[in-house]
Structures are given as structure tokens and as C-alpha cells.
Design goal:
Distance between the termini: 70 Å
Number of domains: 1
Order of helices and strands: HHHHHH
Helix content: over 70%
Number of strands: 0
Largest sheet: none
Number of helices: 6
Shape: rod-shaped
Radius of gyration: 29 Å
């Protein structure tokens, strides 16, 4: 019923704004309004839970997108370093390629800085 829906919105507002414990609010509504108060409380509580689930889902999706972008950047840096190593020193041994792909962004940056000055590929990875 429309009256219950309106009351459910009021329940949501009270819980969100005042932080009133839901048990206290439910008891008040039931004592004052009878079964309609309980229905409004349950409807309002369900809407709050659904909104909470949606907010959680949105936060999770955003975090996933950010992690995906970060992983994409890291993979791109690794591919670029492998290409630079290949152009400078010839075919990159699998062991070095594996290290590059497994390394974090900071490590890949350190190796990339060494490519131009290193006498051979071993020198790029020396000490790491």
C-alpha cells in the first residue's frame, strides 16, 4: 500500500540520519501503529539492506577496475622493458623475462634505468 511505502521511507530516513537502533524503532512503530508499523519497518529495513548491498557492490567494482588498470600498467611496463632489452642485447633469456613479468613496478623501473648504460643484459639485473 502507498501509505506503507511512505512510512518505509520515513523509517529509512530516521535510521540513516539519527542512527536510532533499529530494534527501538521497530518496537515504537509496532506499539503505535500495529501491524502496519511492522510492515513499514520491514520494508524500510529491506530497502536499507538493498542500498547497502548496492553500495558495497559499487565499491567492489571500482576497486576491481582500479586493480585492473594498475595490473595493465605494470604489464605494459614489463613488455616495454622486455622490448628494450631485446633491442639492446638480443633475445631475452626466459629467466630474465620471467623475472621482469613477476617484478613490481619499482623494480621494473630500476631495471629500465640500467638498460642504456649496461654493458650486457646480466648487468641490468646484477644485484637484484
Amino acid at each position: 500500500p502507498p501509505g506503507i511505502a511512505a512510512l518505509a521511507m520515513v523509517v529509512q530516513y530516521i535510521v540513516e540520519v539519527t542512527g536510532t537502533p533499529t530494534g527501538d524503532l521497530e518496537a515504537l512503530l509496532v506499539s503505535e501503529l500495529g501491524p502496519g508499523g511492522e510492515e513499514a519497518f520491514v520494508t524500510g529495513a529491506e530497502q536499507l539492506r538493498e542500498e547497502g548491498r548496492m553500495q558495497g557492490l559499487e565499491r567492489g567494482l571500482e576497486r576491481g577496475r582500479e586493480e585492473g588498470r594498475e595490473e595493465g600498467r605494470r604489464a605494459g611496463q614489463a613488455r616495454l622493458l622486455i622490448k628494450l632489452l631485446d633491442l639492446r642485447f638480443g633475445a631475452v633469456p626466459r629467466g630474465y623475462a620471467g623475472r621482469v613479468h613477476a617484478a613490481d613496478e619499482a623494480q621494473v623501473d630500476r631495471w629500465a634505468e640500467r638498460v642504456l648504460d649496461a654493458a650486457d643484459i646480466d648487468e641490468v639485473f646484477e644485484g637484484d
